[in-house]
Structure formats: C-alpha cells, structure tokens
C-alpha cells in the first residue's frame, strides 16, 4: 500500500511538471525545434518564416547546432514561426515555440512569465526626431539644459510640453517614457505603435515629434527612409538596456544549453565578426561587455 501511494505521488508530481521543463524532451521526441521571432526588427530579426535573417537569428542557429550535437539529433528539423510582438511571451508559455529569436529586455515583469538567457546585445535607448524638430525640444532631449533647479525642470517642461512621442506598444521604453513625463510634470501625448516602421512613418508625416527606441534599430530604419528630409537619431543614449533571448520559464536544462553556447561564442571572440556584420566595428566597451556576459 505504501509503495502504491509513493508511486501515485511520483506520477502526480510528474504530471505537475510544467510544459517548460520538458522542452528538450519534446524536441527529441518530435525531432523538431521551433524558433519564434518578431518580423521587422532589423538588424536583429526580419524576413519570411521560410528564411528569416538577422543578428539574433544567427545566434539561434548556433544554439540549434549545439542541440543537434548534444541531443544526438543530426536530422533535427528547424522551423521558424513569425509572431506578433504582443503574442511572443504567450507562445513560449504554451509551447508553440521553444525559443524566441528576437531581442527582449529581461525586465522583472517579464520574468514572471518567461526566463531569459545571458545578454546578447548591449542595447541603448535613444530617440529619433523630425528633421524640423524645434530647438527647445532638441535641447531638452539631448540633455543640454543647464542643471540648475528649479529652472532646469521648467526648461525641460517647456521643451517637451505639448509634444507627441511615439513608442513601441508594451515595451519597457513605453513605460520609461511615461514615467519620465510624469516625473517632470510634462503634459504631452504618447502614441503606442506596433513596430519601428510605423513610428518612423509618424515622424516623416509630422504626426510625432520624437520616437523612442533602440538606437541601432532606429538608425537602420532611418537609413532605409526615402523621405526628402528623413528624421535623425540623437547621439544621446538615455539608458543601457541589455537584451536577451526569452525561453520557457523554469526550464533550466534548456537555459544551461543556451547560455553555454553563448558563453562559448563570447569567450572565443566569434561574437566580433557577427557583431561587425550587423552593427559595425565593436568598440572597446562592447568587447568588455561581452567578456563580462560570458560565464566561466
């Protein structure tokens, strides 16, 4: 009777295991690895599901090769699933994808739903502005207002007041922008857009004064602009925001495998040609950050 009770408890515990903890087992069983990604996030992830490309896509391909080796799956099939930004976390939670191959800021709020790898890119939050942006707005955004309280706050308020600022819907940048406007008591409109192309289009149409987001992505989007007077990206980086790969919460085996491969890429220096391909020559700070990200 005792043995039967123990067996039933063991079975119950097994059934209670979260779906996330079985990712590699599911991959082995189906001989299939499903990688989710968000389109139009150049240079990180973009393109059709038949052949996506980008910096993060290539990192995921390296991880897929490690899974093939370590799990002895030479014929492992690799499938990409294009996801809308707002469904990405849910897709990990319900097992539609095994790994998200687009960058996400590893915020504490998101960690309630999913886990994250080591950082994959030292992202920085910046802003793009209209070609005809007023000088007062530029001074406020570039931090050129003399820090003499209370005049400092008043000058910032005047520079930003009644402006229209675009942000990616649901992003940590949206939260940050709204928090900063509240902090300075600025009355302005915040417009949440679904992607970088939409935000740049608002600037070009004169329907937004500034668009906040990752500096590199903003630069790439504007470089492809056909506008007679395209927006420009400020030199200022408001905050560093290291981004990571999102994976199912609680799956430590998968997370260890992912972090092991990323650490190898960082320690070996293989990250440098990949970084150079998409972002240009890495500076000394970037090199040091990748060394710091790698685990021994």
Automatic annotation (TrEMBL):
<dbReference type="InterPro" id="IPR001638">
    <property type="entry name" value="Solute-binding_3/MltF_N"/>
</dbReference>
<dbReference type="GO" id="GO:0030288">
    <property type="term" value="C:outer membrane-bounded periplasmic space"/>
</dbReference>
<feature type="domain" description="Solute-binding protein family 3/N-terminal">
    <location>
        <begin position="32"/>
        <end position="282"/>
    </location>
</feature>
<keyword id="KW-0732">Signal</keyword>
<dbReference type="InterPro" id="IPR051455">
    <property type="entry name" value="Bact_solute-bind_prot3"/>
</dbReference>
<protein>
    <submittedName>
        <fullName>Amino acid ABC transporter substrate-binding protein</fullName>
    </submittedName>
</protein>
<dbReference type="GO" id="GO:0005576">
    <property type="term" value="C:extracellular region"/>
</dbReference>
<comment type="similarity">
    <text>Belongs to the bacterial solute-binding protein 3 family.</text>
</comment>
<dbReference type="GO" id="GO:0006865">
    <property type="term" value="P:amino acid transport"/>
</dbReference>
<keyword id="KW-0813">Transport</keyword>
<dbReference type="Pfam" id="PF00497">
    <property type="entry name" value="SBP_bac_3"/>
</dbReference>
